[in-house]
Every structure is written in C-alpha cells, then in structure tokens.
Amino acid sequence: DVGVWLPDGRLKIIDRKKNIFKLSQGEYVAPEKIELVIKGSVYVNQPFVYGDSLHSVLVGIVVPEEAELKTLAASLGVAGSFEELCANAKVVVDAVQKDIVAVSKKGGLYGFETVRALSLHPEPFTVENDLMTPTFKLKRNEVKKAFLKEIDARRSVSW
After folding, report:
1. Which residue windows are coiled coil (predicted)?
2. CA atoms within 13 A on the CB side of 85
3. What is the pLDDT, as a whole number, of residue 132?
4. Could you tell me the CA-to-CA distances from 19 to 31, 48, 83, 101 in Å, in that order?
5. What residues have CB less than 8 Å from 94, skipping those under 6 apart?
6. Going by C-beta distance under 8 Å and a sequence separation of 6 or more, which residues neighbour residue 45?
7. Residue 81 sits in a domain of what CATH number?
8. Could you tell me the CA-to-CA distances from 90 to 86, 94, 97, 118, 123 in Å, in that order?
C-alpha cells in the first residue's frame, strides 16, 4: 500500500503500489483515490480511471446511476433507453463529464487527476462478467482489456 502521513500523525492509505501509474508528463496518479472522489457525483455508480505513460489524459469508464441519468437526459430534452443514453447521447455524456470535473475540483484533485475523457457503460462491473473479484474490487487489468477500444477512442476526442 501507498500512504501519506497526516499532520496529526495518522497514516492515510492512498492506493496500492501496483495500481499507481505515471502519465506522459511525469505525474504519478493513484486511480482509486480519483475513483473515490468522482463517486461523489450523483451520476456515477461505478467508476474506472485509466491512464498510462504514453498519454497525458485520464480516461474514465463509468457505469452511471440509471435513475439520475434518465432525469438528467429528460432535463436536457434527450429521450432514449438507458443503453441509448450511455452510447449515443453526447450532450448527456458532456453534462456528466462537467459534473465529474466539478466534483473533482471540490474534492481537491489536481488538474492532471481530473478525468478528461469519458465513456458511459450501462452494464455494471460484476463478478459474473469477470470485472470484479469475489470481494468486489475492480480487476483493473480485466476492465482495461474489456474497454481498450473505448479508451483509445475517447482519448482522441477528449477535451
């Protein structure tokens, strides 16, 4: 585990060493810390944050809260099933992205820790689809493999 000493002498665990990665500009990123912060968005149910040393942008794969996403879509004048909203509604994805950026700032994340490319996925990460362990932790490598095309596609259209 990786941690930091707090001013009052307590140790705060940030992430596991194996999960931390470096972005192209040299910053080290702890994805679990970021995922915990962006779960503060009402639209986020299950987040996955990915980055690597070849790119400077973090990509987020998010399983949204269905009811909140449908309410957001209706307020934006967008209709469709949950799956359609996740796949095709750019205005909805952009609104969720803006909320994640706001939550990230409020949560004290640095600019390089902010998810700048986002994809919404309607199917939850589960043990059955082999994206979580029996103790309900993300299998980061499996999620990365499952969403590699999405990750690459989002990097090219990030803002």
Report:
1. none
2. 27
3. 94
4. 7, 12, 30, 22
5. none
6. 62, 63, 64, 65, 66, 124
7. 3.30.300.30
8. 9, 6, 10, 10, 18
**Parent domain of 37:** 2-155
Q: Quick one: CA torsion of 2, 108, 136, 118, rounded to 10 degrees?
A: -120
In terms of Cα–Cα distance, which of 60, 106, 105 is closest to 86? 60
Residue type for 151, please? I
| Token duo for residue 148 | 């590699």
Using CA atoms, how far apart are residues 153 and 80, in angstroms rounded to an integer?
A: 23
- What confidence score (pLDDT) does residue 9 get? 85
Mean pLDDT by 10 residues, the chain (159 residues): 77 67 85 94 97 89 97 94 91 95 95 93 96 92 94 72
Q: At what angle do helices 31-38 and 90-106 cross, to 10 degrees?
A: 110
Residue identified by tokens 């902010």 is 114
- Burial category of 45 from C-beta neighbours within 10 Å (exposed 0-12, middle 13-18, buried 19 and up): middle
- Whole-number pLDDT of residue 89: 83
pLDDT of residue 15: 57
